Write a sequence for this structure.
């Protein structure tokens, strides 16, 4: 049934603002992106109501790998980083941010990512734009080693402004019950390892945009203070790093020993508001601000917005995107494994007796 | 650190429009709602980065119940039904809609719901409003028999208009591989059973709102044509029915036999756009429009909007929220089980040889 030139004068769904055909065209465009994330565990079927994912490649492997599997799931969005993507007209990286925000949260508990689903709320479906968004999600899923088994695009012209959209994601992983990491095993003397962030990641963009406005900054301009050849807007849109493969490979390399007591993904709340989530109530995390170089972007934003340093550390990751709390004896071995996986890990500080707080000094 | 009366004049996150404390107050309010959905399979921990859910109560039970488990996952929102909730100032039922949209999709594949997560994008976090939204989500989870193990509230004042929000959800269930329902076993002669909807459910609200505007309808008015004592707005906000417990109980009652070949959740696209998703390419579904009484609400909206009947059937569920395609020999037994579970099932039509189409007559 064509939806154009309809004979009667009654209301149709298309006139009311929802274009089902544009939705169908979008599905055609994004299917290839979904498929490149599929492994043999995905049970694919066109038109299915839900995505299906086998917990292991086959029954025999599954029984060998899991005695008491725990599913680990989280949901997160990319915050107002989408507004920057819209302003710059660059839509193919925000999907990686969305995957990163979820997958980095999930691996904190010791999980291996299995699959991902995305939700896009949008003013109007523009198939080309939607393809770019989903391409980024699929890129992120490939980086994280998980399958993109579903998603939803909701066209809501009266909720979202023209050109605007919101992007949220959902990730599921699995971990054997005995190996779930919950911070209870963190001990005084443990070492805190930090992994570098690629920039702002996906938290604090409402403050970033306030600073842009306050200091009348130009997204298209190259600022020498940034020590980057790209214009400010591009630097700010740099996608969030995904730590999944690196962290999972370290976890897998210790089959019996459990040298990692806790981990944290540094999101809204910064180091003080996230490393504490990896502690129990009788230890503190002592972090030395001089342990790493704060990237020029954060110093630039702090200066331009005259933002208090404490506020900077509470809102932004300040260059540290992920932390691992490890037994001192294993520190060098774990750092070497991380280096081999492409990271540049550094010692941020150590665990002391305390009350579950993060002490920055 | 208090966020008020800060001494310096630099920008803070709160001034930029994000109130972290309101977020914290919201977490306090919603925790009780999450907890009432928990069963023994939820591994709860405050401040965790992700929700953790054991696949069975214990290792022994897990091995007895699953040989080759398949995870079944989906994501969906509630569309512009949120705008109606906002307009009416009623926020404690839209969460059930959100759970329903996801869980009803998932059970179509034969899954038992395990857990749910919600995502709320909002102009500004109002703890009382957020509690109402999450209360509805928790109600829906209890109806569906799944745990609400996580969620995200994203405050985005520059994306959402004051008072507005968007609500999406994500559900995961499990099904033994051999029992996944994919429509491949549907045969000519099979019977199509329909289950009643509670109203519009959560699709087509953009058209509903266009009709409201076109016909200058009043949400606060009781229209005799609706055959309902409640005002129009309340009738339109009636939450989506959740078919999970009923359908799962029927599926569980057939341990060896597999009398159900396909199922469909009737969402956007109506009967013709959803029952086809339960078919393979060599059968048709013949549905008789006279097999059930179209509820007064649909006739009222059709008349008020002068909407073509075909368009009505393509956009709305027309009173049928869920369908099951069953072997003829089992029809009466399955209908009796559904009746015992509180449903009023009816025969909608039957399967014939064909090309994967739905034929309404």
């Amino acid at each position: 049934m064509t939806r154009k030139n309809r004979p009667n004068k009654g209301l149709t769904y298309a006139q009311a603002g929802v274009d089902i055909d544009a939705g169908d065209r979008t599905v055609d465009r994004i299917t290839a992106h979904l498929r490149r994330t599929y492994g043999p565990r995905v049970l694919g079927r066109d038109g299915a109501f839900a995505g299906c994912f086998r917990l292991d490649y086959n029954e025999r492997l599954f029984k060998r790998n899991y005695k008491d599997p725990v599913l680990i799931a989280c949901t997160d969005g990319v915050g107002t980083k989408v507004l920057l993507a819209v302003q710059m007209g660059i839509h193919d990286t925000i999907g990686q941010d969305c995957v990163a925000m979820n997958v980095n949260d999930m691996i904190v508990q010791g999980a291996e990512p299995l699959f991902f689903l995305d939700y896009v709320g949008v003013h109007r479906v523009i198939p080309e734009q939607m393809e770019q968004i989903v391409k980024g999600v699929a890129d992120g899923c490939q980086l994280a080693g998980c399958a993109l088994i579903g998603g939803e695009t909701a066209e809501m012209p009266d909720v979202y402004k023209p050109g605007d959209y919101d992007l949220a994601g959902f990730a599921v992983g699995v971990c054997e019950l005995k190996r779930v990491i919950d911070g209870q095993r963190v001990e005084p003397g443990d070492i805190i390892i930090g992994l570098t962030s690629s920039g702002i990641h996906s938290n604090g963009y409402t403050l970033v945009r306030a600073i842009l406005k306050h200091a009348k900054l130009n997204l298209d301009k190259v600022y020498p203070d940034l020590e980057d050849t790209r214009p400010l807007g591009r630097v700010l849109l740099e996608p969030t790093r995904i730590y999944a493969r690196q962290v999972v490979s370290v976890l897998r390399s210790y089959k019996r020993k459990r040298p990692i007591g806790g981990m944290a993904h540094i999101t809204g709340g910064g180091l003080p508001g996230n490393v504490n989530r990896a502690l129990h109530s009788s230890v503190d995390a002592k972090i030395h601000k001089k342990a790493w170089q704060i990237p020029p972007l954060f110093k630039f934003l702090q200066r331009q917005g005259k933002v208090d340093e404490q506020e900077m550390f509470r809102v932004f990751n300040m260059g540290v995107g992920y932390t691992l709390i490890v037994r001192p004896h294993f520190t060098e071995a774990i750092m070497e494994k991380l280096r081999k996986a492409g990271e540049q890990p550094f010692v941020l500080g150590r665990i002391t007796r305390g009350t579950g707080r993060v002490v920055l000094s």
User: Anything to note?
Assistant: The mean pLDDT of chain B is 91. Chain B has two domains: 8-179, 191-360. Chain B has twelve helices and twelve strands. The first strand of chain B starts at residue 42 and ends at 43.
